[in-house]
Amino acid sequence: MQGRQRYARLYITVALTLGAIAASGGIAAADPASGVALAERQFRELDYELVLSTTDAVIAEPTASPAHKVAAYYVRGSAFVVLDRDADAAAAFAALLGLDPEFRSPNGAPPRIRAAFESARAAWRVRLEEELTTRYGAQLREVTLAVDPPERPVGGQPLTLRVRLTDPNKLVKRLVLGYRRASDREFSLLSIAAAESQLTIPGAVLESEREFRLAWYVHAVHDSGARLRREGDEDAPRWIAVTQGKVPVVTKKNRWFWPSVVVLVISAVAVPILIDQARDVGPQRISVGGS
Hints:
Elements: H1 2-24, H2 32-44, H3 48-60, H4 66-82, H5 86-99, H6 111-136, H7 138-141, E1 144-148, E2 159-166, E3 174-181, E4 188-193, E5 198-201, E6 212-221, E7 227-231, E8 238-242, H8 257-277
Antiparallel strand pairs: 1-2, 2-5, 3-4, 3-6, 6-7, 6-8
């Protein structure tokens, strides 16, 4: 009897321990996607300390992809913001940006968290740029960037910005274009390899029944995510007026049209010939038996 009671108490202890681990995210870390979902749910339920435990487990999980870790760092940093742990929040956001330099706060993020993230991103950028200036020095000074926008862009048609990049030491990894309408808050991003020279905004996103102003910027970005050169930025973008216009409607010709015409023409020529060959030639003599 005592043995059974002892095993029963041990079973209950193990069950409670496993429950606590699961609640803190330890088990969920085996599935990083589930761990991220758990952390986000804990954040919505105001369980910020549990968020920290769960995201710790996700970040430490060897099978977690960069995308999983980015999501975990964001909710972790957000929890630190709510807990008034500003330095920890900045560290979490900096780790996130190290994985995804172009990350932006999701639409609908609370203003306090958005502001904390933007502040951390600004500090992260300054630190990276200072490190690269120290490391590359004269090589970095040889990098130049100039951007030529079109003179009269039309809504509904592609808008191409021509980039002139001088980078003899190949420090620039990619070119990043940010753009938004004056009525929008968030920039859309478009990225190309540094070797390319044109950044094109699709015409479909520029459709408008009236003229509008488009904000844009172009950054020459290092592999680390640091901006080596820039033409405008999020806070001080360049502007261009886009006239009204829609995407041109392309009418598809019926692929059977021209073959049908050819058939009709051939028929028009062939029918008279057949009729001519079949006309009455009158009675004819028929030879039978060779006579």
